[in-house]
Specification:
This protein is mainly α. It has one domain. The chain is built from three helices and no strands. The longest helix has 31 residues.
Length: 81
Amino acid sequence: MRKYPITQWIFTGLAMLAFMLVGSIPVFAQCSMCNAVASAQSEGATKALNHGILLLLIPPVGIMSAILIWAFRYRNPPTHT
């Protein structure tokens, strides 16, 4: 594993944060039908809808995280000594 200076880690972290923030802007652009239905609901229904969306987001994020962790852990072939 290469050793990176702390400045490169900080730069990488800030770049990832910037990409996540810029990438989250289109998330707020919903389709007009979904937006109309969600805005017509009461405050409790809106909160329930948001919680449901977050709950449905957990499995795909978990699966992708597991795949990425597995890929990074086993990216180098084992060395035989």
